[in-house]
Amino acid sequence: MTEIVTAFAPASIGNLGVGFDMLGLALDGIGDRVSACRTDDAGVTIVEVRDLDGKLHLNLATDPEHNTASIAAQALWNDYGDDGGVELGVYKGVPLESGMGSSAASAVAAVVAVNELLGTPVSIERLLSYALVGERYASGGMHADNVAPCLLGGMIFCPRVLLPDTVRLPAPDGVSLVLMHPELKVDTAQARRKLAQSYSMEQWLSQQGYLGGFIAACAQNDIALIGKTLRDVIIEPQRIAVVPCFKAVKEAAEKSGALGVSLAGSGPSIFALCEDSVASDLAAAMEQACRGFDIECQSWVSSLHAPGAYVES
Ligand code: HSE
Fold this sequence. Notes:
single chain; alpha+beta; Ribosomal Protein S5, domain 2; Alpha-Beta Plaits; 2 domains; binds L-homoserine
């Protein structure tokens, strides 16, 4: 019988506000699946791309040169595959252009599935470099803040200067994540091209202080310090114009007890960290503020310990 391996990879939040391109968090309960089976034809192909409801995906083609799943899997196959090939099925649970790490989830699920099919020649940590090949195609950058938490789970610090090594941050106790996805789309590669290339000493000092403080807050389990340091004074102000509900949603979240609020990746999704007890009310407040702009939305509450990618069958 033909062996089919299916892997799941979660959605993720890049930047986590305070750590542009170097801090990310995996989400519970939402992600992509990729199945892989061997074929006689050489190389990696995609047989189908479907939404979770089973319908053929309207916006993603099966052209293996234009899908992060096949691009990442091909990089792994080049190093460890044989003369045959592998056929992928891609099942999208993460909305496209949502700021929820959709391209990373497909790339990660693909390399995890193909690695299993090959008898796991590569450790989970070393799969990062292969998944990053897919992410670079999608966003035009070599940043791991979606791919690393998606692969490894939890909260990961992954500055480019340390890659392929990454650092797992201890998640503070009693803190939840709320993610609200307004039904808008932001193209990450385009959003990245628009960012300023140089910044003032003042901005650099502030952001470095917030990032250092946030990491210390996680290490010391200091919730009040998270509230003081989960800030992005550099990237967020440049990106919020394309998310008309951002300011109102942020204000609503803050009034409902958020410790900090920012864009997820390049947006349009907006996330907040908060104490567990207020998470569901906070999600409701964020949704209400978003709908005030006639923008439909959906939200998720997640722990900060969501598992990374895994083989399902
Ligand atoms: N760090 C990335 C960005 C995440 O904000 O552009 C999205 O790929």
